[in-house]
Design brief:
binds iron/sulfur cluster, 3-methyladenine DNA Glycosylase II, Chain A, domain 3, mainly alpha, Alpha-Beta Plaits, two-stranded antiparallel ribbon
Amino acid sequence: MTPSAEAIDALLPQTQCTRCGYSGCTPYAQALAAGETELNRCPPGGERTITALAKLLSRNALPLDPQCGIETAPMVALIDASRCIGCARCLPPCPVDAIVGASRQMHTVLTDLCTGCELCIAPCPVDCITLAPRAAIAARSPSPTPQENRQRYDAHNERIARRERERRELLAERKRAASATKTGAS
Ligand code: SF4
Ligand code: SF4
Ligand code: SF4
C-alpha cells in the first residue's frame, strides 16, 4: 500500500523553500504519494531525506536531482543594515516569519527561526540579503526542527487568512454603512 501524503510530509524538512518544484512540502508529499514525481527533489533534506523516503515508499534511493539545487550546510539569511531601505518586501515571502521590521525601518533576521530557504532574497530591491553558514553566524543556535518550521508556517498562513477575513469583513461593513446612508437620504 502506498504511504499517505501525511506520512511522507512528516519526513520532509518543512522549510517550504519550493526548490522541489512544488509550492511547499505538503504539495511535494502529495505528488510523491500519487506517484507523480521522484523522491530526490529536496535539497534541504539531502541524502538523509532521500534515504528515509526510499525506505517509506519502497523505492530505490537516487542521487539528489541537481536541477533542484545542491545539499549545503545549514544556512541563515543576513540583512546588511547599512543598505536596507525598509521597503518590507522581504516580510511576506518568509514562510516562518523570521524577519522583523516595519515600513521605512531597518529589517533584521531572527536567526533562531531562519531556515535558509532563500525566499526573501529575490524580492529585495537593493540586494542587501545574503546567506551565510549557520555555524559561522549562530554557532550556539541549532537549526529549527521540521516540527518547529511546520508550526511557524501554519501560524504564518493562519495570520494571513485572518487578515484577509478581517479585510473582507471591513469592506462588507463599509458597503452596508454606505447602503444604509443612501437609503436614509432617499
Ligand atoms: S523543504 Fe524540500 S520538500 Fe519542502 S519545499 Fe523545500 S525542497 Fe520541497
Ligand atoms: S529569513 Fe529569508 S531565508 Fe530565512 S526563513 Fe525567512 S525567507 Fe527563508
Ligand atoms: S526587502 Fe531588502 S531593503 Fe526591503 S526591507 Fe527587506 S532587507 Fe530591507
